[in-house]
From TrEMBL:
PANTHER family: ALKANESULFONATE MONOOXYGENASE-RELATED (PTHR30011), C2H2 FINGER DOMAIN TRANSCRIPTION FACTOR (EUROFUNG)-RELATED (PTHR30011:SF16). Residues 34-389 form the Luciferase-like domain. Belongs to the NtaA/SnaA/DszA monooxygenase family. The keyword Oxidoreductase applies. It is an enzyme of class 1 (oxidoreductase). It holds the Pfam family Bac_luciferase. GO terms for molecular function: monooxygenase activity; oxidoreductase activity, acting on paired donors, with incorporation or reduction of molecular oxygen. This is NtaA/DmoA family FMN-dependent monooxygenase. The keyword DNA damage does not apply.
Length: 445
């Protein structure tokens, strides 16, 4: 299986103050991230990943105050320079950056990822998202969110442009002949002359071809439209940490979408997000997980939920039905498969709950308490194996949402990885040079 590590939340939502975490350091200390990279490579992990957000959460009560006060999805940092730093102290582990196709321009991003692939010697992945956060939209000149399907249409065209730009400079286009002075072969550098619904790009890129040709492409769409978009271009998909039955269904839907576009589902994995705390004993791990519930005040969970759903939950009535609330969320162009959708699956779509009950569930979601596995290495390996087999044995896991950094990653590397290696579920050494080699070696054994 693939194993990745998510650093998106290591200093957010109260985790920075957990006992033993960030001792003597403050976000975004580059030394912490370099230590993380060295640890991940020692464990032969595939990828270090970070999601991102470009706005301060403000959907809740139309204010940023509570987000700033309690550190809810704030502060963040563009991870580009930090991942460059991490790449310079490692040789094999890959790096996944997140950018929004809803706001970015494909020429800029294609050029940036090309440069980063050179700096990392072929170890970059690009995670594209269709943004549902109103705080982000406001920073890019949008008064509101684009319609759900339109965001995916823009993403698909965005990827088409990037791919054309990356392919527009052929792998052997560079000559660098010292005798003649010739730098490149004009016959192998091509304009793309793209004119589409969202973008007009002439091309070509003014950069040398990168070590991988193009970065690994990732997307995490969970709605029917998102799954269809991902099937068209991803090298590997991301999946949410949700009920196993929903993961199994997403794998089936994704396989069908892959076959529809002529791709082999057996060679396209899903990497499931899996918050995880591993310790020497189950008791130690469970004790640490219990601390998650005290990281932020319960009333602050609404800030997190509103930001990530694109819907202001401060306006909830005293009692309401989950299916009606989810329909209202979808009607505002926010995500139809977020927290409320998952809660409806858990409790029943027609369930009526109180505002107080909703936020009690919300704090468990905001801290990832309910989806965080806590146990010994053997227990964790059992759990991952069960999920891996149930979802088709293709792909793996994005471990993360830890409480204690860098200690939680060290315990994954020192306890869990050796257990998976003993079971023949994980590599003992890297077998290739690029991230593409590393991610895809599980399909070539």
């Amino acid at each position: 299986m693939n194993l990745c590590f998510d650093v998106s939340y290591i200093a957010l939502d109260g985790r920075w103050r957990a006992p033993g975490s960030w001792v003597g350091r403050r976000f975004p200390d580059v030394g912490m991230y370099e230590d993380i990279a060295r640890l991940a490579e020692r464990g032969c992990l595939d990828l270090i990943f970070s999601g991102d957000g470009t706005g301060v959460p403000s959907t809740w009560e139309d204010s940023t105050d509570d987000a700033v006060r309690w550190g809810v999805s704030w502060p963040r940092q563009d991870m580009n320079p930090l991942m460059v730093a991490m790449s310079r102290v490692t040789r094999h582990v890959g790096f996944g950056l997140t950018y929004s196709s809803t706001f970015m321009h494909p020429y800029y991003l294609a050029r940036l990822m090309n440069a980063l692939d050179h700096v990392s010697d072929g170890r970059m992945a690009l995670n594209l998202v269709t943004t549902t956060r109103r705080a982000d939209a406001a920073n890019f000149g949008f008064d509101d969110l684009a319609e759900h399907n339109t965001r995916y249409e823009r993403m698909e065209e965005f990827v088409d442009v990037c791919r054309a730009l990356w392919d527009g400079v052929e792998p052997d286009a560079m000559i660098w002949d010292r005798e003649t002075g010739q730098v490149g072969d004009p016959a192998k550098v091509h304009a793309i002359n793209h004119r589409g619904q969202f973008f007009q790009v002439k091309g070509p890129l003014n950069t040398p071809p990168s070590p991988q040709g193009r970065p690994i492409l990732v997307q995490a769409g969970g709605s029917p439209r998102g799954i269809r978009a991902a099937a068209g271009f991803v090298d590997v998909a991301f999946g949410e940490d949700k009920a196993l039955a929903l993961q199994v269904q997403q794998r089936k839907d994704f396989d069908a979408a892959l076959r529809h576009v002529g791709r082999d589902p057996a060679r396209v994995g899903i990497i499931w997000q899996q918050p995880m705390i591993v310790a020497e004993t189950e008791q130690e791990a469970v004790r640490e997980r219990e601390g998650l519930l005290g990281m932020i005040p319960k009333e602050v969970a609404g800030v997190y939920l509103s930001h990530n759903s694109g819907y202001d939950f401060s306006k909830l009535p005293r009692r309401f039905r989950l299916d009606e609330l989810n329909a209202e969320i979808a009607a505002t162009q926010a995500t139809p498969v977020g927290f409320v959708h998952a809660l409806a699956h858990k409790l029943g779509a027609e369930t009526e709950i109180s505002r107080e009950e909703f936020f009690e569930y919300g704090v468990r979601r905001a801290t990832s308490y309910d989806t965080t596995f806590a146990g010994s290495a053997a227990q964790a390996a059992d759990y991952l194996e069960e999920t891996f087999e149930a979802t088709g044995s293709r792909g793996g896991f994005m471990l993360g949402h830890p409480m204690v950094m860098p200690g939680d990653l060290a315990r994954i590397v020192d306890f869990l990885v050796p257990e998976l290696q003993r079971r023949g579920r994980f590599r003992k050494a890297y077998s290739g040079r690029t991230l593409r080699d590393t991610l895809m070696d599980i399909y070539d054994e």
